[in-house]
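Figure caption, in words: inputs first, then the predicted bound structure.
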Amino acid sequence: MNSEDIKFNETFKVAIENHNNKRFDSAEETYYKLLNLKPNNPQINFNLGTLLAQQKKFDLAKKYLLKASDLSPNDPKINTNLANLYFETGDINKSISYLDKVIELKPKFAQAYLNKGIILNNIGKFSEAAGMFEKTIELEPNNSNFYNIIGSTYIELGDLKKAIINLRKSLNINSKNLNAINSLVKIFKTTQLSNISKKNIEELTKLFLFLYKKNLINHDDLFNNAKILLPVQDKNNNLENLLNKDLKLIENSLVNKIISSELFLLMLQKSIFRDAFFEKFIYKIRKEILFFIEKSQKNKLSNFINFIISLAEQSFLNEYILFQSKEELSIVKKLENVIIKSKKIDELEISILACYYPLYKSFKIIEKLKNYKSNNNLFNDLIKMQIEEPLKEVEIKKSIKSIGKISDDISIKVKEQYEENPYPRWRYSTRIPTTNFLSLLNYDIRPNKFISGNKFNNPKILIAGCGTGKQLNNILARENSNVVAFDLSLSSLAYAKRKIDEVGSKKIEFIHGDILQLNKLNKKFDIIECMGVLHHMENPVKGLNILKNLLEPDGVLKLGLYSEIARKHIIELRQYTKDRNFKNNIFDIRNFREIIKNHENQILRKVLISNDFYSTSNVRDLIFHVQEHRFTIPQISQILQDNNLEFLGFTFPEIKKKYSRSFLDDKKNISLENWHKFESENPDSFRAMYQFWVKRKNND
Ligand SMILES: C[S@@+](CC[C@H](N)C(=O)[O-])C[C@H]1O[C@@H](n2cnc3c(N)ncnc32)[C@H](O)[C@@H]1O
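Bound structure (S-adenosylmethionine present):
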């Protein structure tokens, strides 16, 4: 090798290093220089093409990859990257033909089958995709990701049994595989398991224990399936019968078994119990426990301390929504005095008190527990939840910047509600791997596709009305984003910021104010999300117009709006509360719920199956809100037209699948006229609001 060759090779090495370390500009410049010297070097053409494709400069990338392929037609790497490029630019057939060539050249190269499977998945050929993924597993049986991908494909195919088997295999190899965990949560969130054999109950219980112990998922999504794994009946007893009898639950062996079960305790700590039957159970047993204290029979409770702490955590999560009788309240008052006066710290008594109100509400109890450390970690967790975290939020509030003055009458009232009950209270949320926003958007609006110059490589995002930040986890998953999280309620923002600080993200700026004042930000955004907010403004269209004007020309906006049709029963409930003069406060909400739970009117009782019936902020939001507008699809269509906005698609994949079967001609699922027909025939479709994306029209 002569000295020039040596220099050439060294420069090439440096360029590759820069490329691998994502110093793209420098790598690109060097590749060009090297190509000037050796234009027919396949490797440099390949590297440059690959780098350009990574930066989404597809036309240029194609030029260099095709050149590389001409120079070295049988190189599997070049064919693979060409396949990827054609896939990304939408030429599926070419992409598949390059992959077939790779498979022919290198039949044991799992990645080629994987990529082909991913493409087939994307075009809805799930069975063929599954075949490709089975092949990858045959070639690399210890690759956790392959089981996970095939698991997701079986979800699409509706074969949940196979999906769960593969996802568990993925977790057996790598218990931290986030995609596998998320796919399992997705299954349990959207499907109700039934007719489970005894053996399967044992296996599923193990799986649920595993999931409940992870703090990177939203455990509310597990609740509906976890509850059917609880041992609610044995040879002698049935919990339902026990609840209807006037006896001491805590002394019953079946009840004992339930409240000592690890799964039940974890559920209490992490999922809001959204179930009228279990609510009754919890209510009765909490009262019984309180009465044991009243009758100085504390010793009978010592075995149940962890259950009682878990119940206190559940009470905090549901914001003390369960009914509290006068009798209970007077015992609680006495208990509070005993605790405050005593020199000792009695963990049992404090935990019982925490089942009735949050500990941070009493200054004296804060003082008592401020520096206390228990030997029981669960008790420490309770103090963290009910004292440390709320106090942290008080501090965070002081650091949040405000813009403008909140002077609109409705905004002032709405703010008051969310200051008292930030919406929604949540403990953990499902963490999603980061991805480029464009693919996330296209996944959300599929089968439609967003076509524009905006590649969202460094998107500026506004979350207008972020509440307590539950939706921010999704936002964190957007690659290279800069986020402004905005809300009327300082308490909600402080809650959100505390949760985001826990994750350690620095890319979100929290700002307090009214959407009506958002112009004062003097900023434009590529993405704006406004979920469940505009319908609580006095004039939602005015709010929408403000948001639209903050959008970059190629930007997109996601909206969540109440449906008039889906909320028929809620409208009746709202009327019911007005007619009987129920006020928007916790006492009236508790009384109202007791009446509805036992009401004979089935339409009113329909709310019992709603997730939002089981915590205070949710019920206030659902039924007692100071301001609510609802929309029909034709109204939304008109509003979009008036504001020069183009509808890109609803987000719910299951509903779209059903819609597609009835409206075969609407290939993109975007005809609002058809959607209105569909909703009229399927009135519960948008129970969880209309959720959809729009963009500014090109001529705007
Ligand atoms: C139902 S919550 C939705 C929270 C969040 N978007 C979510 O989906 O979890 C509505 C939120 O909008 C906020 N909000 C309502 N009107 C607003 C306004 N005019 N300006 C800013 N925020 C507002 C409330 O404070 C509240 O946090």
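DSSP finds 34 helices and eight strands in the chain.
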